[in-house]
Structure formats: structure tokens, C-alpha cells
Amino acid sequence: MNPLTNDEKKSLLHIARSAIKSHLKGETLQFDVPLTETLETPCGAFVTIKVRGELRGCIGLIIAEHPLYSTVAQMAVSAATSDYRFDPMTVKEMEKADLEISVLTPFETISDISEIEVGKHGLYIMKGPYHGLLLPQVAVENNWDVNQFLQYTCLKAGLPTDAWKNKNTIIQIFSAEVFGEKDFENINEL
Fold it and tell me: In this structure, are residues 125 and 150 in contact, taking their beta carbons and an 8 Å threshold?
């Protein structure tokens, strides 16, 4: 998929916020943004919600099953209402929220951890029935090195921190195009 244009990024952010507001108010989702070929291409994505800089919800879909715009709308509502770590958001709380979207590239299984670039790659670790994912920006935000990134991804998967060393553990990397409302002035006036 080609990199997103600024207009496509703004459209996705508008779709995400509109989807959450509509859901919280019990209304039918309506948005009037142009759907480009890129926005209609199936793609995995995550939506992250922060309130006053603190994580308030983050849910995504790694499999490219639906058009990108649809995935973003669905994941936005899920991040606001279904992240098990938080109570569902309220309309009032949503007014203070900042949204961030991560559009994912396809995943690639690696054979050596030297292939991991902190700041560029996200990690997906699988071993047996356990799996966990951390987006590329998580390592940067926490100032982690590669080993710490691997350890925390193992924890997210419910595995011991050194499970990444096991030969039966699968490590996949991916990149993400990450953008948020904070990247655009007056984004909420669309």
C-alpha cells in the first residue's frame, strides 16, 4: 500500500472520532469524507486513545480483512468501549481524548533479533496459544532497547520475559504509519 496522504490521514482520524461519538450516543455512523482507493484497500490498523497523555484504550486488527476506513472505524469503537484494561468511555471523556492511528504493513517472520530496528518495527511474538503485540512507537515512548522490547512483548503475550529465546517462539516484525490528531491543527473541526 502507498503511504497515506495528509488528506487520507485526516479522513481516517475523522472517521475514527465520528465512529466513537456515534456509538457512544447510540446514533448511526455518518461521515462525509472521500474514500480513496487507498482507504478502500484491506489493511490492518490499530487505534490508540489517550486522555491527558495517558493511555485510555488501544485495540487493533492485524489481519487485512476489511477496507482500511472500515477497520479504523471498528477499532476506534472497540478501543473506546472494549479494551479490557479500561471502563467504556463516556461522551464527556471523549471530548478530552486524542486519537492516534497505526496503519500496519504485512508481518514478516525473522530468524535473528538483529533484524529488529527499534523505532521502525513493531513486534508480534507467538508461542503455542500465547501471542502478544507491541506497536513500534511503544519501544520509543518507553526508551527500550531491543532486548527490553522483546521482554515486554513476551509479557504482553503472557509468556516469561525470556520466551523470545526459545526456538519454538515465533517473532514477527512489522512497520506502521503512525499519525494522530496532534499532528494536525483544527482536526476536530472537520
Answer: yes
